[in-house]
Structures are given as C-alpha cells and as structure tokens.
Task: inverse folding
C-alpha cells in the first residue's frame, strides 16, 4: 500500500449556520484547496448523516462537486451515523493507498439546526434499534445516562469527574475560534451552588445539561494525497499512518459487559498497530466526547489508561492542555460542537493543526503523533485514526 | 389475551436471541423459532430521561435495561418510584409509544 498524507485542511465555525448545506460543505473545501494550492482533485467523499431527513437533500456529493467546479471528479456520500466523518477519511485513505487516486478531498458537512432540538434528538435516535430501543423513547442521551450509572457504580466515577471533563473542554474551546461554545464554566456554576440545578438541570440522570454536547451545524475538509503529490506541496508532512474500524452489537443491552466499548478498543488497536505506534507515544488526542463520560471511557479503551483509571488521570490534570497527554484541545464535541456527520473530519482537522504547530494558544508542545476516535451509534461503529508528523 | 415479547431460538444450538438476528452469533445457524421471553428479571441500569422525542406527551420517562430470568437482556420503560440497580422487576407488555395512528407495544417494568 502507498503512504497517504494530509496536505490541505479547512473548517467552518461549528455553531448555527444560516447558509445552505452545500455551502457549509464547500466553504471548508475552498479553504483546504487554498491551504495546499491544489485546484483539482481526483475524487470527493462527502460525509453527512442528516441531509435527506433534515434538509430534504439527497446525493449531496453530486451537488458539492459541481458547486466547487470540480466536475468530472468522482464524488460520493458516506453515511455511517456519527462516525461518517472518519469513515469518509478511511475511504479516502483506501483510494490513495490502493493507487486508485492520487488526490482525494474528504468533506464532512451537517446542517442539524434546521430542525428544532427535539427533532434533532429524535433524528439522531433513529440510529438505535427500531423495535427493541426506539419504541421505548430511547435517545442517545438516555443510553449515555444508563452507561454512566454503571460506570459510576463500578469504577467510582462521580458527577465531579464528569464536570471536570466539561470544564476542561469548555476552557480549551475558548482558544478555538471555530468552537460552538465560548463559555467558560465552573464547579460553582454547574455543580456546587444553589443555582446549579437551574443552570445545569438533569437531562438523562445522572447526566446533566453540561454533560451533553451541543447540536451544531458545521463543515470540515481534509485533502489527502500520495507521497509524490505531498512532497510537491509546501506544507508540513502529516502522514495518515493508521486506520482502524470495529463494530459492536446494535442493541446496547446485548453487550456482555455493558461498561465495555469493544468497538473503541478494537478500532484503536488496529489504528495503533498499523502506524507502529503505542498509545503511550501519542502527543495529542481528540476523543468523541458527545457525553462527558465518553471521554473518560474512551481514554481507557484506546489504551491511554487502564480500565477504571481514566477519571483519576483526568483529576490529576494528565489530560489537560498542559498535561502529559492533552485530550480534546479543540474543546471536543462537548464545546467545539458536534455536527454529527462532520465531526470525524473536524477531529482530524484539529490533529493536523496541532501536528503542524498552528494551533495558537491551544498548541500542544512538541506534538508529533496524534490520534482520533470517532464513535458511531452508542459505540456500535467506531473509526480510529493515527497521524504522524514527518520531518 | 396476554401479550409477550418474543425471543428467537436458534434451531441449531438452542440459544435465544433478542431482538431477532439473521445469523446466530454462536453457531452461524440461520433458522430460528419465536419463543415468549420471560417477564421477571433484575434491573441492570436505568436513567430518568427529561428530553423526549416530540411525540411523547409526558414530561419525562424512566428507561432501563433488565436481565430476564432466562439470561436475555431487554431495554424497556420503568414504572418504579425509586429504581435501584439489582432490584427485582416484573414486566407487562403495554402501549409504550404512539406514532401517528400506530400504537407500539413493549415491555414496561414494575417492582416485583
């Protein structure tokens, strides 16, 4: 297989965007073409989850490729729930590694806020089992609530640990102009004061409002290329060195050990093995913290910490921006935002920015190896990626 | 007539699956027969959900995962005042969601 490099990146703000979905997809793509100087690519993969249901638009890739005047390049959509973004990067990787293409544009784009919050929650819940979960009113927050209760019981995670994730990621997002939430929060405001229950009400007990990511619009883009193309582009050489993917049962209740996230474990192991990297060598990671508990659980499953130790590392500051292994320096899904189909591309955008040394006030020092986990369903389809900065 | 939730018993190895699947995880068998699932079990975990889909006319719902007496696990709604992990529960098949004119029936668990 051929080596694959990220040569261009672009991103929109993750927030409420008042322009059409095609433009949300096109804007970061134009930024990415400017970033690397390319004006044409061989192929586009467009990751999206909600266009057909929420935006009344199908075949988004066909619209985007023409809007960017990139015809006759091939173009297709990738829909893999909230893991669509990293799945599209994986598709781009395969296209270049195989020799089929030399340049691939991977776009993630979502316009969720066209729907109201209840509709958006119900739409995301459509990835659950229709007859064994959806009919009961199960939503992703409710699954996370049930998972959190077990995690607390088994490993001693507390609401304070969950708040630490939220506070850390809101603080990180203050340094990210593209983040959805620029709102520093404190233990006083969300947990300790008399007003805490008003500021931070229960949503899916034991998870509260500030344990949840916002519903975001947004787009992000990577341009992937072969080594031959990458070496002609005057940008830092960032190699997509490892790609992993694993699945788990559709119904959460069928998992033997409900606190295990086996698809996260499997995807990460593949992405590390392929890159020839150990979890302990990672400089910076973006983990899929749609709910605060997931940052803790995923940090264990990918191999950064032993099972049940993630919350302790968090409390010791190990995963903070100035810690030994910063997790979610972008603000994560929690504060940077979660435009579902675009999220995985947004995570990769942050890692490439960090490895290039272009992250400004949130820059992780000497970042050489980056890692992402993009979590689909409630952990039933997970894609992990490893990136290495080359000299 | 008493309603039941159905499990699917693999004709190859006898393992009961819920919900149904096309291929048995254990023996790769592809033939299954429907069998009623038991209604007694213990509560494995639960949540009190306050942000519901628009078609629910209640402000909140208790949801849980129950391990049934035959070892199968099932997701359901709870009608229990103060649920606790590990408590014994018993289910009834009742209306759980109304979507337009369609009434979905499912398992609602009560304290045993």
Result:
């Amino acid at each position: 297989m051929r080596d694959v490099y990220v040569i261009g990146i672009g991103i929109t703000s993750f927030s409420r965007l008042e322009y059409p979905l095609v433009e949300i997809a096109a804007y970061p793509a134009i930024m990415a073409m400017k970033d690397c100087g390319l004006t044409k690519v061989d192929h586009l993969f467009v990751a999206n989850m909600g266009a057909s249901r929420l935006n009344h638009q199908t075949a988004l890739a066909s619209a985007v490729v023409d809007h960017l005047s990139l015809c006759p390049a091939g173009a297709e959509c990738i829909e893999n729930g909230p893991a669509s973004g990293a799945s599209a990067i994986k598709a781009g990787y395969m296209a270049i590694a195989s020799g089929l293409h030399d340049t691939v544009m991977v776009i993630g784009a979502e316009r969720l806020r066209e729907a109201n919050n209840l509709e958006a929650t119900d739409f995301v819940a459509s990835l659950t089992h229709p007859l064994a979960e959806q009919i009961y009113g199960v939503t992703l927050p409710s699954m996370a609530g049930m998972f959190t209760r077990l995690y607390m019981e088994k490993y001693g995670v507390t609401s304070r640990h969950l708040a630490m994730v939220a506070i850390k990621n809101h603080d990180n997002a203050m340094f990210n102009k593209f983040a959805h939430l620029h709102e520093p929060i404190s233990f006083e405001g969300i947990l300790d004061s008399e007003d805490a229950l008003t500021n931070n009400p229960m949503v899916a007990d034991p998870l509260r409002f500030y344990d949840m990511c916002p519903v975001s619009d947004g787009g992000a883009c990577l341009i992937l290329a072969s080594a031959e193309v990458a070496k002609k582009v005057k940008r830092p050489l960032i190699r997509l060195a490892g790609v992993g993917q694993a699945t788990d049962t559709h119904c959460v209740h069928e998992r033997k050990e409900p606190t295990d996230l086996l698809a996260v474990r499997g995807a990460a192991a593949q992405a590390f093995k392929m890159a020839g990297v150990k979890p302990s060598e990672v400089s910076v990671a973006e983990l899929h913290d749609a709910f605060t508990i997931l940052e803790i659980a995923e940090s264990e499953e990918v191999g950064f910490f032993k099972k049940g130790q993630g919350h302790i590392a968090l409390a010791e500051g190990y995963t903070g921006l100035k810690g030994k292994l910063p997790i979610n320096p972008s603000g994560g899904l929690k504060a940077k935002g979660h435009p579902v189909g675009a999220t995985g591309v947004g995570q990769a955008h942050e890692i490439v920015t960090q490895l290039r040394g272009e992250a400004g006030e949130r820059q992780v020092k000497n970042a050489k190896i980056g890692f992402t986990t993009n979590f689909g369903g409630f952990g039933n389809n997970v894609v992990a990626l490893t990136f290495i900065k080359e000299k | 007539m008493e309603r039941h939730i159905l499990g699917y018993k693999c004709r190859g190895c006898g393992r009961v699956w819920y919900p149904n699947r096309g291929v048995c995880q254990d023996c790769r068998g592809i033939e299954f027969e429907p069998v009623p699932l038991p209604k007694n079990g213990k509560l494995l975990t639960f949540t009190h959900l306050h942000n519901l889909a628009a078609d629910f006319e209640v402000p909140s719902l208790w949801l849980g995962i129950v391990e049934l007496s035959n070892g199968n696990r099932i997701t359901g709604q709870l009608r229990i005042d103060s649920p606790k992990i590990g408590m014994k529960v018993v289910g009834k098949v009742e209306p759980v969601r109304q979507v337009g004119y369609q009434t979905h029936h499912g398992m609602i668990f009560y304290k045993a």
Q: What stands out?
A: The beta strands of chain B are 6-10, 16-17, 32-36, 40-49, 61-68, 73-78, 88-99, 102-111.
